[in-house]
Amino acid sequence: AAVTSGTAVVLGHDLCVDRQSLRREVGLLGHSSFLYEDLSVERNVVFAVRAARADVAGVDAALDRLGLVGRLRTTLVGNLSAGQRRRAALAVVVARAARLWLLDEPHAGLDAEGRTLVDDLVRDASRRGTTVLLASHELDRAADLADRTVAVVGGRVVVGELPGERRGAATGAAAPAGPAGGVRAADAEGVGCDVA
Fold it and tell me: Structure pTM?
């Protein structure tokens, strides 16, 4: 069902009034890579960072961190494997240095090394004060990254826990990592929702 009333304030921006200025503050990793197949990995990352009006200074470091070096850097996205595409999409999020990361199934399509890299990126971002909202069906993995977990089933929150509390047996989770080294639920710093 569509949201028909209420308010949402993210990083001080009221989404009902001012969505546009929030875009530079948010890094999104969805199921789709949002990459252009006929551009190289590097050109895609630079384009996405510039489109968000963010600083391109972090592009090289992001590509290096995601292992997109050498020939991969100049390879057209259309010629990449699924895992390489996922890494390129993650490089966009990392390079933008956004204050809020929205990661939908960030481990999908990645090998064991890539999944560990995602975990490291989430932890590093959290230590820098970035709020990370991570949606995953890998409940144990997400919980290991979290200060707090929220399990959502059928659009309803069924479990909300702090570390050390008993984990619920739900089939979907949102594990948001936030400032002060970890994960917070909807009360993450700078994020508030009131939907009627």
Answer: 0.78
